[in-house]
Amino acid sequence: MRISRDHFLPPDPTAFLAAEPATGRVLVIAPTRAACETIELAMGLHIDTLLAREHGADIRRLAASGRGFGIVAGTGTGKTLAIRSIAETILAAPLKVGVVNREREATPETPTWNVVIVTTGIARRWFEDDLITARDTLVVDEIHQTSAELELCLALGKRARCRFIWLSATVDPTFYARYLGSVEVLETRAFDPAKAAAVRVLPQQPLEFLDDRFIRRAMRERRGVAVFVPTRAEVELIAGELGDRWQALSTAFYHGGEPIRVIRPFLDGLVKRPFLLAMTAAGQSALNIRGLDTVVIYDARYANVVERGRNVLTRLYLGANELLQMAGRVHGRVEGGEVFILSDRDLAFDELRPTGPEFQLAGDAERVAITCAALGVDAADLELPVPLDRRAYREAVRLLSERGLVEQGRLTRYGREVEAMPVERPWGELLYHADPELVPMVAVAANIESLHRMTREERDLRGLIVSGSDHLTAYNVYAEAVNNHGYLGEVYGLPRHLFHETIDRWAEGRGVLVKAIEDVALGTASVYRQLELPLPPRLPHAGEKTLAAFADLVAKIMPFDLVIDEETADGREARVSRGSVAGSWGAVAGTLRYFADRFGVPRASIEGTELSERAIRRYVQHGKPSVTFERQRRREGLMLVRTVTYRGFV
Q1: Strands, E assignment, 151-260
Q2: Which of 25, 246, 593, 613 has its CA 20 to 30 A from that of 450?
Q3: How do strand 294-298 and strand 301-307 relate by DSSP bridges?
Q4: Complete DSSP assignment for 281-315
């Protein structure tokens, strides 16, 4: 599969650069696709906000100064709405706003836009193609939501000598002010001392705390309760158990696997108190829940800690920023507010202060290496916000060079084709080499994080399991959703798989997350557009024949991590994931994920596709023969020895 045009770049880059206004463009970098839509909506609104009342004149003064600055303000104070005022001041012309992300591609009208809203990945691609210049102003929304892509964009913006205007919720602004050359940082807090909440720290577990006594009081006082816990399993357990026991209590849950519509009634104020809403951290930063006056916070989170260039998923206590943001839902905002922090450590809430950002880039050396190769620079030439593991970076460059993506520090033609695919590098390589009959499977599987993340703990995948392949099993789950409950529609004028309301009942019976299905639909449509292929209205079922062809393609290209008999090529243990449909023995190709066990020791697990010994032997490399004298056999004598190697295994 070849790419004739990158649909995320303007069709005519020269025309795009030639049409740039004298002031430069305003490029708004948003952390998520949903944030793009929120910002686009805000660009057409004129609403009086707390931030505008306190700092409106300062914002316009700084925007007109040509210098960079920052804004730190809590949720609901009007940060996003301030972007319109900033853009109008800088451009001094009517705003022509456009969005480019995975569901809205660049168009022939893109050169006419003077405000372009993009996600971090799209921004990085534009930097790589020199579409963002020193005349442009970068407005970074929600800069505290760190990611490897965002951190790269900050470094690339500094390299391009762009002006930065950044917006953040609770964070210590010292680092950003220094790193991005901000002349001033404006701060606004939506805090009324008269509405300070009563805060208590208790050494209890969530369900232990949410006992009959607490629920009876919440119902008697008609309170609106939000419970923050770290995992989706805990969220569903709390909402399910309390909902079953207390029928008069409106309960619901929300996590990254659920579409926002499941809690829309809470956001729109349609659910009357008393209610209880259990959420992961996905709900603590951007969701305004009407009627909320009680917050219960379990002091735990899972975050990636970088160890030797690897992201290791580790259980940690909540940071000060998270605690302040979660409590800030009611603390200083509503009368009679209550905050309960469930923790086994000594916490003095009144002494908590915002801290600096926690960066992610150090654990993604390959992404840095690909970006540097696209630009023709070394990582040392970029002023990254966090020190990079130089050993991991060199190893990433070596791997990319061996795979033919990088040569003499630049992306090869093959590397540029793979980089243009809207998926991770391993899947981009598979798409490049896939025969037409395998494109649906590869395109869909490339957009599925894992079978485990796609399904609930209790699931029923009968008739969908392809024994030995998590990739194809996950593909079959999506294919059944499309074939039985979907149709080919359009979103923003572009084809995409859409779903009937019956998808909810199907997902509940199968134990599948609807949000995961919708995300796969978005990603799959993006892949087909990039390949300039028509999106199929129905998808074929993957069976044994498909598995043989897919496993052969994987064995031939081998872009993934490889584990044989639960060991990596360098001898480290890597167990097959608990929810995998692949076997524990033999070769499994997929993605290694690292996590810290209860003692803090890094462990590895893998989900993927089994490869037969025959498939591996078809693509082994034969070493030069050598002669050795063998003493251990029944007959001593000379022997001719030839070694075979395969992706580091001998």
Answers
A1: 163-168, 182-188, 198-202, 224-228, 250-254
A2: 613
A3: unpaired
A4: GGGTTT---TT--EEEEES-EEEEEEETTEEEEEE
Distance CA 136, CA 117 (A): 13
Taking a C-beta distance cutoff of 8 angstroms, is the pair 372, 402 a contact?
A: no
Question: Hey, CA dihedral for 333, 334, 340, 346, is it positive or negative?
Answer: positive
* Domains 13-188 and 193-351 alike in fold: yes
- SS3 string, 499-547, reads ECCHHHHHHHHHCECHHHHHHHHHHHHHHHHHHCCCCCCCCCCCCHHHH
Q: At what angle do helices 514-531 and 470-485 cross, to 10 degrees?
A: 90
Task: Give buried/exposed letters for 281-293 (b at 16+ CB in 10 A, else e).
Answer: bbbbbbbebebbb
- Residue 285 pLDDT > 60: no
The domain segmentation of the chain, as residue ranges, is 13-188, 193-351, 421-619
Per-residue pLDDT band at 249 (split at 50, 70, 90): very high
For 469-520, how does the pLDDT look when each residue is reduced to its tens digit (9 = 90+)?
Answer: 999 999 999 999 999 999 999 999 999 999 999 999 999 999 999 999 999 9
CATH 3.40.50 fits 13-188, yes or no: yes
Task: Dump pLDDT digits (tens) for 311-357.
Answer: 888 889 999 999 998 998 899 989 999 999 999 999 999 999 999 98
Which residues, in sequence order, are bridge partners of residue 608?
590
Rounded Cα gap, residues 574 and 565, in angstroms: 9
Residues in the chain: 650
Superfamily of domain 193-351: P-loop containing nucleotide triphosphate hydrolases (3.40.50.300)
Q: Which phi and psi (to 5°) does residue 418 adopt?
A: -70, -40
CB-count exposure of residue 53 (10 Å: 0-12, 13-18, 19+): exposed
- Find out whether 304 and 295 touch, Cβ atoms under 8 Å: no
Q: What is the mean pLDDT of the chain?
A: 92
Paired strand residues for 638 = 629
Alpha carbon 597 to its chain centroid, in Å, reads 23
Question: pLDDT of 35-80, one tens digit each?
Answer: 999 999 999 988 899 999 999 999 999 999 999 999 999 877 889 9
Amino acid at 546: T
Amino acid at 603: R
Q: Kindly give, in sequence order, each residue whose CB lies less than 8 Å from that of residue 495, ignoring residues fewer than 6 positions away.
A: 488, 489, 525, 528, 529, 534, 535
- Residue 278 in 3-state DSSP? strand
